[in-house]
Structure formats: C-alpha cells, structure tokens
Amino acid sequence: MTSLTPTRPQTAKSERKTTLKIAYNPKYTIAKYGFDTTRKAQWIADELQNGAVPNSALVDPVSFVDRVKELISEIHSHDYVQALMTGSPSILATSQGFSWDKGIWEMAVNSTAGVLAATEIALKEGAAGSLSSGLHHARRDSGAGFCTVNGLAVAATHAKSLVDGRIVILDFDAHCGGGTHSLIKNDEQILHLDLSTNSFDSYEPTGENCLEIGDYSDESYLEAAEEMLERIPGDTELLIYNAGMDPAPMISGETLKEREQRVASWAADRQIPAVFVLAGGYTWSMSQEELVELHLNTIEAFTQ
C-alpha cells in the first residue's frame, strides 16, 4: 500500500490514469465497536488486495492526518471533538451510536484523511475513492445515525482551497444527508444533491440544493438518479459521491450496479474529477458477501 504526500494538485482536466487509487489504512477499522460501518472497509480492502478489481490500488492517506485534524476542528465543535478524543461527555462521544474507545477518534481521523487524499488524487488523475463510510448524518455538535465525522463536508471545505468552480456533493445513500445539509447549506460554492429512499434525517433544502425522497421502483429510481445528474452545473470542478448501497434490497443490486456505471460514466464523459466513498449498506438486509460485492461495483465502475 503506497503512502501519499499532500500537494496542491493541478486542476486542469486531463485523461484518467490507468490505475484507480483508493485510500485505506487499517485504522479505518480500529474502533472496538463491531458494526458494518466500522468493519466493512477491511472486508473490501481484503478483496482488493486479492485482485477483485483489476486496475485499482490501495494507498495510505496517513500523510493527510494532520490537515484533517485541523479541518475537523473547523467543521465540528470543540466540545464534540474533545468528546471523540476523550470519551467525555459520553452522550457526545457515543452520539453516533457506537460505544466509545480511543479507536473511535483514530478511526474517524484516518477515514476522513482518506476522503481528503482521494480528493487531491481525483483532481490530478480524474477519479479516486476512499473506503470510508459513516459520514453524512454527522453534525457540527454531534454524531448521528452511525456517522462520527462528516467527511463529505470536510473534503468539500478542503477542496475550496484547490478549485474555483462548484463542488457538488452527490448523495445516493438511502437516507437523507441532513448532517451534510446543516454544515454546507449556506455555502454558495458547494451544491448538495440528495436522492433518498428513506426519510430518516430529512430536511428542507435551500437555494439550488435538492432533496428527493421516494418509494421507487428500479426503473423510477434510475430515472431519479439521472435527473439528479442533470442538476449538476456546468462549472462543477469536483464531484464528491456518497455511494450508498442501503437502497438495497428495495432497489435491486443490478440497478445499483447500473447506477454506479452511470455516475462514473457521467463524470468521465464530462472530465469532472470524481471522488467516491462507500456510505451505507448493512448486513441486516443482505449477507456480508452481497454487501461487499455491491461496494466493489462502485470501484469497478470508476476503473472503466
């Protein structure tokens, strides 16, 4: 696994490099609390290291950790950050739904560093990903819904120092990204487009931001996804994609695979740098093998 050095990337649009880089290190899963969000990055990393997706490679985002700590402290409140680091007060330290241990903070920092690393790689090479999940419900003052630190808002904030155009957060997790909305709703450079199949964490959109919630069939879901892609403005210079697999089983795995191919193709055809993260997907509704396969579909789509 290769280590990375933060740099100011060249933002000129260019051809994709051959190998898709995906950020990961073992601290993504260092928390003691055992749950899909704290474990599946390792499951997928193991498959990638065994060659499950050709033309992909894992890279270690550890060099971004210091910058991430600064950004987390900008995005999230002092009291919440201290709670994640120390476990006190417990109501904040466990607000995402996980029992606290020192690994919670290390998990959140390294996973968020991966989103930053992927952002810089994508701006140089066209696309990149991170095996991060548990992001879009986290708010300034607390975690929520299995989300500890809002890596989407952190990465978008970091990207503002790297690009002049629009930054789009495209959220196709089953649940609404209310935490992301609360953090970026007043930022005119960041556009938040949210397609949901469940009203958990719903909110009232502002400005050009968009939230669509529906009881979709496979066909109508793909139509809604296409409509969201059409909302992305022409001056977009970075797409941050929250690639949730939790619309399954209501939405079929075949349809979610097609969704990933459409998102990846849309960005590649327009030469818009794209970053993806894993987002939701849980073994209470499918087997571990099925869940891993769905997330591998995202990675495979972005290698094309």
Write the layout of secondary structure elements.
Layout: E1 2-3, E2 20-23, H1 36-49, E3 56-60, H2 65-75, H3 78-86, H4 90-93, H5 102-125, E4 127-130, H6 151-159, E5 166-171, H7 178-184, E6 190-196, E7 210-213, H8 218-230, E8 236-242, H9 253-269, E9 274-277, H10 288-303
Parallel strand pairs: 1-3, 2-3, 2-4, 4-9, 5-6, 5-8, 6-7, 8-9
Helix pairs in contact: 1-10, 2-5, 2-6, 5-6, 8-9, 9-10
Using brief descriptors, characterize the structure shown:
Arginase, Chain A; globular; 304 residues; 10 helices; nine-stranded parallel sheet; alpha/beta
Describe the structure.
The protein is an alpha/beta fold and 304 residues long. The protein has a single domain (28-303), classed as Histone deacetylase domain (Arginase, Chain A, 3-Layer(aba) Sandwich), CATH 3.40.800. The chain is built from ten helices and nine strands. It has helices at residues 36-49, 65-75, 78-86, 90-93, 102-125, 151-159, 178-184, 218-230, 253-269, 288-303, and strands spanning 2-3, 20-23, 56-60, 127-130, 166-171, 190-196, 210-213, 236-242, 274-277. Strands 1-3-2-4-9-8-5-6-7 form a nine-stranded parallel sheet, sandwiched between helices. The protein is globular and about 45 Å long.
